[in-house]
UniProtKB/TrEMBL annotation:
<keyword id="KW-0560">Oxidoreductase</keyword>
<dbReference type="InterPro" id="IPR011057">
    <property type="entry name" value="Mss4-like_sf"/>
</dbReference>
<comment type="similarity">
    <text>In the C-terminal section; belongs to the MsrB Met sulfoxide reductase family.</text>
</comment>
<feature type="active site">
    <location>
        <position position="47"/>
    </location>
</feature>
<feature type="signal peptide">
    <location>
        <begin position="1"/>
        <end position="19"/>
    </location>
</feature>
<feature type="domain" description="MsrB">
    <location>
        <begin position="239"/>
        <end position="361"/>
    </location>
</feature>
<dbReference type="InterPro" id="IPR002579">
    <property type="entry name" value="Met_Sox_Rdtase_MsrB_dom"/>
</dbReference>
<keyword id="KW-0511">Multifunctional enzyme</keyword>
<comment type="similarity">
    <text>In the N-terminal section; belongs to the MsrA Met sulfoxide reductase family.</text>
</comment>
<dbReference type="Pfam" id="PF01625">
    <property type="entry name" value="PMSR"/>
</dbReference>
<dbReference type="Pfam" id="PF01641">
    <property type="entry name" value="SelR"/>
</dbReference>
<dbReference type="InterPro" id="IPR036509">
    <property type="entry name" value="Met_Sox_Rdtase_MsrA_sf"/>
</dbReference>
<keyword id="KW-0732">Signal</keyword>
<dbReference type="GO" id="GO:0033743">
    <property type="term" value="F:peptide-methionine (R)-S-oxide reductase activity"/>
</dbReference>
<dbReference type="InterPro" id="IPR028427">
    <property type="entry name" value="Met_Sox_Rdtase_MsrB"/>
</dbReference>
<protein>
    <recommendedName>
        <fullName>Peptide methionine sulfoxide reductase MsrA</fullName>
        <ecNumber>1.8.4.11</ecNumber>
    </recommendedName>
</protein>
<dbReference type="InterPro" id="IPR002569">
    <property type="entry name" value="Met_Sox_Rdtase_MsrA_dom"/>
</dbReference>
């Protein structure tokens, strides 16, 4: 069993001077000093230093408190909880303004900053006290959380089954003072712990390493996958199916991260109106309305149709790092994005024709992409 503090660095005695013992926290919704109604969400996602930091960044969140939930022992201490013998989980209580942010949006922020597929711990912290859970306070929270978690499961973005527990809230005990706002009080130590924990590298792998600059919510991904008018979903076939479906070049580009020849591919000079979709899954990727002639010999676009369908990752296959572009659900290698494109984005999405299928404007309805006809309206 690993304990965060002893794993990375000892708690110095000075931190304990003036620290208070935990106290039970009232979880009822009330009226805040801000003058509006507030609600409470209780969540466990591993290290509460990290979950506190991540949830406080969500607009509409008023306060986040680190503590312990899920056990029965009165006034548990950090040492008791970290032993793994108390049934408590490291947790946070999130006070938020429902007029500004919904309970689902709080859950969305939470799930995009944890590993919900691990029921044996969380990243470097191992043990039942670090597993993830949603403690619902009322029937509404239970219903919202249950539905949202099923949608996340169906989305498949985490690539493994969810193991996050959905449990009724009973008690929450505030952790010792030195745990509160730890990321603010001890930024160097916190950043070092967070880096070595592997949390951010995992999240970059799942959501793309541009997730902070260009965040895409789970709700956006869920809605994008449904495709508003047809309820269409996007999945990746088995490797056997892919080999039978794709040409040798298409398989090489999408599955082996290959690159097709410049000026000798299907769409580099295509001027027809329409959209480009993933050759593997059919995910809508780019529109002819954003296509331009870059002179590189590959189809180039200023932006995707919807950021929810693309993931950006750092590619180190060459001497210098590049930003790779992959499809969200099929995980197909599409190409790379560069910062030498036209206004207003200044970006050049340099794609492989072999990774895409072109659907002409006149065929959008027949092919199930009628909702993208708006792209070609004046």
């Amino acid at each position: 069993m690993k304990m965060k503090l002893s794993l990375i660095f000892p708690i110095v005695a000075t931190l304990l001077v003036g620290a208070s013992f935990p106290g039970r926290v009232d979880s009822k919704a009330n009226t805040s000093a801000h003058g509006g109604k507030t609600e409470i969400a209780t969540l466990a996602g591993g290290c509460f230093w990290c979950t506190e930091s991540d949830l406080e960044k969500l607009p509409g969140v008023i306060d986040v408190v680190s503590g312990y939930s899920g056990g029965v022992l009165e006034n548990p201490t950090y040492e008791q909880v970290s032993s793994g013998k108390t049934q408590y989980l490291e947790a946070i209580q999130v006070t938020f303004a429902p007029e500004q942010v919904t309970y689902e949006q709080v859950l969305d922020q939470f799930f995009r900053h944890i590993d919900p597929t691990d029921d044996k711990g969380s990243f470097v912290d191992r043990g039942s006290q670090y597993r993830s859970a949603v403690f619902y306070h009322n029937q509404m929270q239970q219903q919202v959380a249950s539905k949202f978690m099923m949608e996340i499961e169906d989305l498949g973005v985490f690539k493994k089954p969810l193991k996050t527990e959905l449990r009724p809230f009973k008690t929450f005990w505030k952790a010792e003072d030195y745990h509160q706002d730890y990321y603010k009080r001890n930024p160097i130590r916190y950043n070092y712990y967070r880096y070595v924990s592997g949390r951010d590298s995992y999240l970059d792998e799942i959501f793309g390493d541009n997730r902070k600059e260009n965040p895409v919510t789970l709700r956006q991904m869920i809605d994008a996958k449904k495709v508003l008018t047809h309820g269409k979903t996007y999945t990746k076939p088995s490797d056997e199916e892919l080999k039978s479906k794709l040409t040798e070049l298409q398989y090489y580009v999408t599955q082996e991260d290959g690159t097709e020849p410049a000026f000798n591919n299907a769409y580099w000079d295509n001027k027809a109106e329409g959209i480009y979709v993933d050759i593997v899954s059919g995910e809508p990727l780019f529109s002819s309305t954003d296509k331009y002639r870059s002179g590189t010999g590959w189809p180039s676009f200023a932006k995707p149709i919807n950021d929810a369908f693309v993931v950006k990752e750092t590619d180190y296959r060459l001497i210098y790092p590049r930003t790779e572009v992959r499809s969200r659900f099929a995980d197909s290698h599409l190409g790379h994005v560069f910062k030498d494109g036209p206004a207003p984005t200044g970006l050049r999405y340099c794609m492989n024709s072999a990774a895409m299928k072109f659907i002409a404007k006149k065929d959008l309805k027949a092919e199930g992409y009628e909702e993208y006809l708006y792209l070609f309206e004046d």
